[in-house]
Amino acid sequence: MLPELKIQPLRCVLAIVDAGGFHAAARQLHRTQPAVSMAVRELEQRLGEPLFEKGGKSVLTPFGAYCLPRFRELITQHDRLSRELVAQVQQQVGHVDMAAVPSVASRVMPRLLNDFIQRHPALRVSLQDGNADFVRQLVAGGEVELGLTSLWQKDDDLDFTPLMRDAVGVVCRDDHPLAGQEALGWEALQGQVLIRNGTSRLLEGSDAEPLLAESAFDISNMISLTAMLVSGIGITTLPRLAFPEEYERLRFIPLVDPRVERELGLLRPGRRSLSPAAQAMEAFIIEAFGETG
Questions:
Q1: pLDDT tens for residues 7-30?
Q2: 238: β partners
Q3: Which CATH architecture fits 166-261?
Q4: Phi, psi for 143 (deg, rounded to 5)
Q5: Burial (CB count <10 Å: 0-12, 13-18, 19+), residue 77
Q6: pTM for the predicted model, two decimal places
């Protein structure tokens, strides 16, 4: 059976050699000399060989000389690991893998990540973006620890913390007959060339659901959808955050009848603990959304 090596007796051996004796080692370690002697004696009993010569207790035996550099290496590795673990717990180092739906990734995350890294400069963040189903799959599969998304259905294996609500509106080109309206009801969209997209299922279960059956196109890629809208081929519905504001020719008109919203929030594993770095990110996001309402 292998002897169990405790760290403190090894420190005593190193201190005896480095300080030049048992009394000096005791002062250095802030222990009594009998306590240091007992720790060495118990270590020698575990190993089955003396470490110091009997005539001069601070003189190493050949076996002690063999052990000394190995004890020093073990303590160095032990102390380095301890520092790394403490740094992880204190969120001084670490890595956070997370995902977000594209609208959040482009509109919210730049400022959020900048502020987070300023508060935790030693932490690193990896961010992927994709639709809500993609984000959910990454979190459920353990590929990322946190997701900023809308939750389409409840899942006992996932925890969802609501953060904000994002109202749906109609998006069209600036020369479309609807572009000048301040608000719209769903009836005004009947007969229009409606382009369905990945967020269109928000209309399901609402009074506007019949519009989905009339959709002329179904385009999930945001670049392609925007190109269709800018070309004036049709109109679509999008949450406010997903509206591509950088396109000057596009207009966003709130849909007020019915009022449709998506709930955005933080998705995390329900049955697994987060890493210390991810815990820091989770707390930061909840705090940041709380401050901005």
A1: 999 999 999 998 889 999 999 899
A2: 169
A3: 3-Layer(aba) Sandwich (3.40)
A4: -75, -30
A5: exposed
A6: 0.67
